[in-house]
Amino acid sequence: MQPQPSQHDPHGQRNPYGPGPSYAPGAPTQDPRAQLASGVDQFMTGVNAWMAAGVGVTGIAAYAVSQSDALLQTLFTGGMRWVLLLAPLIFVMIFASRIQSMKPGTAIGVFLAFSAVMGVSLAPIFLIYTGASLASTFAITAVTYGALALWGYTTKRDLSGMGKFLFMGLIGLIVSGIVMVLMTSVFHQQISPLFFMVRAMIGVLIFAGLTAYDTQKIKQIYLMRGGGGNLAILGALELYLDFINLFLFLLRLFGGSRD
Q1: Burial profile 25-43: b = 16 or more Cβ within 10 angstroms, e = fewer
Q2: Per-residue pLDDT averaged across 108-127, rounded?
Q3: What residues contact 110, with CB distance under 8 A and at least 6 apart?
Q4: How many Å apart are CA 227 and CA 223, to the nearest integer?
Q5: Model confidence pTM above 0.90
Q6: CB burial class (10 A; 0-12, 13-18, 19+) of residue 213?
Q7: Whose CA is closest to 6, among 25, 23, 29?
Q8: Distance, first Cα to last Cα, the chain
Q9: pLDDT of 156-210, one tens digit each?
Q10: Contact of 17 with 219, CB cutoff 8 Å
Q11: Selection from 196, 228, 174, 258 nearest residue 18 by Cα
C-alpha cells in the first residue's frame, strides 16, 4: 500500500484542516478521520472564542455608556436614538456582505467595532433592569446557548430544513419590531403587554433554533471548503447575533424592572 503524504511532504497536498492529534512516538501514520475531527474542533473553538469576545466588548460598551448621564442624554434623545436604532442593522448588513473580501485583521477589527456599536445601543438595559436580573438572565442565556450549540455540533440530524422556517420567523420578528416602534413613537399607541410576552417567547424559540442551525451550518461549510475566507469571523458574527438576541428576548421574559 502506498503511504499517504505527510503534513510537510513537498510532493503531497497540505491538509487544509491543520495538524491532527499526536499519537504514540514513532507512529508512521495518523488517522485521517482523527485529523479531520481535531481540525473541526479547533476551528469551532476559535469561532466561539471570537463570538465570546464580541459579547464581552458589547457588555463593556453598554455598561460604560450607561454610567454617563451626559452620553445617555445625547445618544438617546431626539434624532440620535433613531441613528442608534438603525446603525447596528445597517452595520451588520454591510459587514456581512463584504467580510469575505476583507483581510483577516480588518475583519476582526470591524467585528469588534460592530460589537461596540451594538453595546452602545443596548446601554439603556442597565437602567431598565436590575443588575441581578441582568446577571441571572445572562447566565441562563450562556447555558442555553452552550447546550444548543453543542447539540447543533454533534447531532447527526440534518437541520437545514429548519432554516427556511427560522428565516421566515426572523423576518416576522423584524417587521413586528418596526411596527411596534412606529406605533409607540409615531402614533403614540399603547401595545398590549401580552403582545410583548408572546413576541418574546417566539423570539426565544427562533434564536434557540438558529443557534443550533447556524452551528451545524458553519461546521458543514468548514468541512466542505476549509476555514479560509474569514469563515471564522463570519461564523462568530452569526453566533454572536444569535446569542445577543436570545439574551434580549429572555430578558424581556424574565428580567426584573428597576421600577
Answers
A1: eeeeebeeeebbebbbeeb
A2: 94
A3: 95, 99, 102
A4: 8
A5: no
A6: buried
A7: 29
A8: 75
A9: 999 998 988 999 999 999 888 888 878 877 667 788 888 889 999 999 999 999 9
A10: no
A11: 228
